[in-house]
Input
Amino acid sequence: MFGYARKVASVVIPGGLAADESFPVFMAPASHPVTIEAAHMILNADVAASTAAYATYVLLNGGTAGTATAAIGTAGGTAGFSQYVPKAFTLTDGSGQLDEGEVLVLKYDETGNLTTPEATLVIEYVDGLGSKRNS
Output
C-alpha cells in the first residue's frame, strides 16, 4: 500500500498553555487508517535552550476515545526553539499508524516555568499504511 501522496494538516496551538496540557488535534477517518509520516512544531517566538525551563511537545495515539497515551514522537526539549523555524518531531519507529477513528493528541510537557508562545503543528500523513506504520 505504499505510494500514496502525503497530505498535510496544520493546527494552530494557542499560547500560554498550562503545564502538561493535552488536547486532540487530528482524527483518522472512520473508513480507513492513516499513517503519520512526519510532524513539525513552528513557534512564533524563540524559546531559549535551557536545562531548567523548557518545553517538549509529544504526539500521542489517543485511541478512539482520545485518552490513550501511546507516544508517537517528540519535539523540543532542552535545545529550545527558534522563531518560525520548524522543529521536526522524532517519530518512534513503527508508531505512526492511526486506525479508523483514532485520535492524535498533542501533549505540551513543560519543565520549569515558561510562557509558551503560539505555535503551529504541521502533520504529514498518508492514507493507509505508510512507512511509519505499526509493525
